Amino acid sequence: MKILILGANGFIGSHLSETILAKTSWTVHAMDLAQDKLGHCVNQPRFHFAAGDMTREKQWVREHVEKCDVVLPLVAVATPALYVQDPLRVFELDFEANLEVVRLCADHHKRVIFPSTSEVYGMCPDPEFDEEKSHLVTGPVSKERWIYSTSKQLMDRVIYAMGKHKSLSYSLFRPFNWYGPRLDNVFNPKPGGSRVLTQFIGNILRGENINLVNGGAQQRCFTYIEDGIEALLRIIENKDNAAHNRIFNIGNPVENISIRSLAEMLVRFITTHYPKYADKARGVRLIDVEAKNYFGEGYQDVSLRVPSIQHAREQLGWEPRVNMETGLRKTLDFYLA
Description:
two-stranded parallel sheet, alpha/beta, 42% helix, single chain, seven-stranded parallel sheet
């Protein structure tokens, strides 16, 4: 099987490429702007990488959609601060650029596996989010934070419609706070410049206090990257057509912790297990900040985001296995050891 991964140097793309080469006989064709996260892949005979921007290298993309069996358009802006700072860029990349790729898949009868997001559920009041039944609830237009969620949701709806009316073969997967090595650059000092876990690790390494937006009371279900990639491999394999034209939440509902608890856990782990950074960790204070002062007026947050993973259990035989303590230790080993 030939797999096309656009955005292969990203967090998910690099782990997926590495795992495909280690565990399967599939061939990977890949494109991204850089390859610094793909060190274990670049010299492999089944890995073919091209450096480039998929929005400009349209002929290359078209040719590789035609030659591959499965297409994963993983290119996206997925940093919350940018949803408010540059919402038009989010829409242009997350929706418009990916729509071109999905249309190519439909035209050439190729299977597409698209990364939706847990954010499509928005402020849904359900205690667990179900792919088939939960309402997708977002805030007012003035809260630009929702442009990411609605761009992804619109892409989901277009793909679903193409499956129904144009016979597009697809699977949608919704990651719930995947984390692990290579998530972001922890040395990026810009507030909100990376996702929450790597932002906090960077704060500690730089000896900065940790800002907790709205006190850090909001809860998230953190999912270790190995678990997420295992689910993604099963979706790609599509054994007995189990993933055909389906949507899957891929998350760990057991590891549902507050952002404040995450910060406290990081400080404790680093103080206890990483003596080189222990003094910096001991000096960190947790500071409550208002969302508008941290992200800007267009930000709005969600208090709870818990996935139902019943469909992934039943159709894929998948279950998350890595607990938060083990996953955090592996992540910190990568960044600090």
